[in-house]
Amino acid sequence: MKTSPHDGIAPPEELQRQAAAWLRQLTSGRASDTDAEAFLQWKRASPAHQAAFEEARRRWQLLKPALGELLREDPQTLAHHRQALRGAMPKPALGRRAFVGAAVGALAVAGIAVVRPPLGLWPAASTWTADFHTGTGEQQAIALAERIDVLLNTQTSVRRVEAGGRVVGMELLAGEAAIDLRAGSPAFQVAAGPGRSMAESGRFEVRYLAGRVCVSCLEGTVRVAHPAGERLLQARQQTLYDTASIGGVVGIEPAAVSAWRSGELVFSQVPLAQVIDEINRYRPGRVLLMNEAAGSDPVSGRFFVASLESALSQLQHSFQLKARRLPAGVLVLS
User: Is the model's pLDDT at 54 over the cut of 60?
Assistant: First the structure.
């Protein structure tokens, strides 16, 4: 994580993301002497930097009781936690003396008890270089180029792509974005993972989550280029790809795919576990589904993002789940 105190004070939301990234970096087991020195330099840059780190630390302190209770009371979660720790414990690169002198004071107060960020609540490190970022439950319309409308969905990070002094596209670092090309707009491309989606007109959406990319063409045509091949999408068509391969072309219902633009989530025979994953993108905190048998049960329905607690209550009763609410917005369904 590299930031400069001479770049001016970033907006509060950006400072909060930087603070969370520092908290994670310094507790990852991979921190170096250079990391510790850079952290102190960042923290001392301004009172706003200090306040942002204090807020990140406060949030972690709120999570500790929830995590402790969950690990004590749920053997399955404890097993997953221990497995994650075994797979994420590289040998620390930071010497004991340097660590104590540079970072332990702050981290001891933070009360860090696990190596990885809890329950996936911190954003991915790759998103810190984004030009635009949306928080949980937030949408944002951005202007990247003339006659091109871009809407970012929740938890989305993008970076401009420029050529010849003008914006020719964007890189989707994480999340979901809708691109509408108005008449007379220049060609536009979206890079996501190992692939690129290019269009000269029409409307399309790109979703990049958990290493998988989904490209949906709503109007016009979109050419999807991947090291494993290319796909030409027509209106009402979609394709998926990951780092290794690209799938075929399938038909879609545009209204369902784009329902998020109007604040709705539409599911048709989608496994409950995937529905919970999607709700977690829009809801502060975390919903944990501990009932593996129910996770494969299909869900069909339409839920409003503004009423997710009501949606969770419906799912709880429909699948006869027990609910336990913990601090920091953690909800355990078992």
Answer: yes
> Is residue 140 located within the same domain as residue 112?
no
Token reading at 69: 């209770």
The 8-class DSSP code of residue 304 comes to E
8 Å CB contact between 63 and 328: yes
7 lies in some domain: no
Query: How does pLDDT run across 89-134, given as a tens digit for each residue?
Result: 444 444 434 433 334 344 433 333 333 445 555 555 556 678 999 9
End-to-end CA distance of the chain: 38
pLDDT at 314: 94
Boundary of a domain, candidates 240, 257, 274: 257
pLDDT, average across residues 141-145: 89
pLDDT band of residue 83 (cuts 50, 70, 90) is low
Residue pointed to by tokens 């954003």: 123
- Domain identity same for 249 and 267: no
**Beta-strand (E) ranges in the chain?**
132-133, 140-145, 148-152, 157-163, 166-181, 188-192, 195-199, 202-209, 212-220, 222-226, 229-233, 237-241, 250-251, 264-271, 286-289, 298-304, 323-326, 330-333
Task: Specify whether 114 is located in the same domain as 228.
Answer: no
Host domain of residue 192 = 126-257
Total structural domains within the chain: 3
Are 46 and 115 part of one and the same domain?
yes
- Looking at residue 45, the DSSP 8-state letter turns out to be T
Q: Which two tokens stand for residue 269?
A: 């025979």
Which of 35, 281, 241 lies closest to 136, judged by CA? 281
Distance (Å) of CA 152 to CA 14, 175, 234, 235: 17, 8, 22, 21
Rounded mean pLDDT of the chain? 81
Picking from 122, 155, 171, the residue at the C-terminal end of a domain is 122
